[in-house]
Amino acid sequence: MTMATYLSEASMRVHSDDNLLHEKEVDETYLRLRNELSSVEIDGVSFFLAEGDLLFDEDELLFYARRRRLASLRFAERLIGNGPELGDAQTVTSGPAELMGVIRNGRPVRWDAGMLLTYCVLRRTFDSDENYRTVVAAMDEAARSWESICGVSFAHVSRLDDSADMKPDGVLYPVREISVDSTMVASAFFPTDAVFRRRMLINRLRYYTTSFDRVGVLRHELGHVLGFRHEHIRSGAPAACGDESEANTIPLTAYDPQSVMHYYCGGRGTHLFNFTENDIIGAQKLYGPPLDDTHVILPEDTETGWSDGSEDVVGFESHIKDLFRQRDRGAMRTFRNFDLWKYEDVKEHALDILREVEGGTMPCDGPWPQSSVDQFKKWVDTGMNP
Fold this sequence. Notes:
The protein is an alpha/beta fold and 386 residues long. The chain folds into three domains: 17-86, no CATH class; 108-287, 3-Layer(aba) Sandwich (Collagenase (Catalytic Domain)); 292-386, no CATH class. Helix content is 37%, strand content 13%. It is built from eleven helices and twelve strands. A hairpin with a 3-residue loop joins β2 (45-50) and β3. It starts with a helix and ends in a 5-residue tail after the last helix.
């Protein structure tokens, strides 16, 4: 980069910062929200709390205000008969009710197929071991419930729970406890959020005493992680639920007052945050049906179909491939760039895989039974047959 280019880019950044500063001073929607919304401080940074569990810094609040202003203008245009603009999200008033997702550039936001969504629960941030164990159990149950209805896969990387780093390498996001004097019970993130903003927060002052189901609260927050917006911000919701922006959203059909993504407000919603049948339909529109989670677990006294005799052939397709679950495959494709369901890839990395499964560090959510480790070792020792 030349000095002239550097100075030019620096000048553009300063100019951009000046524009943002000026817009914050004159944007009525931003100023109103800044005055109305409560704020919390996390790690020395102030955030504004919108829609109950969404946190925005000052710049993000400005962009949120822009979207709300544009949404209001479009709504006004529809009222006076100009019709919706191209690409404007439509609210359907009849038909099956499903989830409402986030869109970017006209397309629904979602994680890549097969990606393993890994997390840890940072033990040192919790006020007590009891709180830590409560959240570990609730996170596991909430994650398993999403896996049971659509094609997503979560994994708790428990070996990183004792990490001193607030954003450990090796997981998509950490779960941590904070203490803020706010109505917020918990908060998460969207797939579009920057890497440093990917964390799930549990408010110590509200989560353990809330009247809402604790697993249900985290089921709701994981809905945000998967890319789903609040259901109660839609035009069909009671006025008591608040007036929030539907900008950058796609209604997968009509308003669902019982949705897992709906707060309890205006006499609608529930305290359990369970899935409705329509939630399941909506989730499968983005992520497909549940993944095949078959993991061959062979009890120690079960016949495996092969013996210690070298005359028996252990093959990849017949004996090894099914040892790897869809979530294991997703993890390796995401973090190691190879496919556990492809013979050539597994053969190339066989010694590394054997070392990991013998040491109990793979899979990340729990070791293989010894019989499965022995079977994989047998395959390696006998020439790694296809």
